[in-house]
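Annotated sample (chain length 203).
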Amino acid sequence: MRRHSTRPDRSRAAAAFTLVELLVAMGIAGLVLAAVATHLIESSTLGLKTAHTLEHVRNSRQLVAELSADIRAAQFAVLYPEFDDRSTELVSGQTGNYLVLHRMDASGAIVSTVGYYLQASGSVWQLRRHDSAAGHSAAGAMPAAGTLGTHPIATRVVQLPGSTGLFTRLRENGYIVRGQFGRAEGASLGRNHYVHFAACTRS
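Output written by the structure step:
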């Protein structure tokens, strides 16, 4: 009569994993997946921050180019505290948020008027631009204070450093413009790009 062995098959036992080995393998796999996920998240965040920074740079360059061209083309300029506060013409050393630029022809007549002003939008401001050539006002005149916020946006979002104004008047009709530019209109500024430049009118 043939006897059957009750001892376990050693080849099968050697090929199988114990519970401890499975737990160790699962733990290692979990650590690897966590590291990979962290790397992917960090790479995505870095890419997003880079995109935002590039957008800030584009916003600032656009403002620098357009504003500098308007200032240099103007024969004289007037700085006021706000678009709806024109009670005082600011002098050297003072800051304001509404800059009006007048261009004249050879006879001294004003042929165009351009203005830049800030409109509050929560904790940030929208920088807007009006132009007599676009029918926003007559040359030599300013739009009515009641038209605040109806003019085209020159740049998306601006945040001022502290409580100072965007424009600071210097001597001989020079101006310093300071601001931080955000990533989206009306949205949280998140990561800002600080811009500081000076542009002077003709004397």
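Annotation: Residues 45-200 form one domain.
Annotation: Confidence is low (pLDDT under 50) at residues 183-193.
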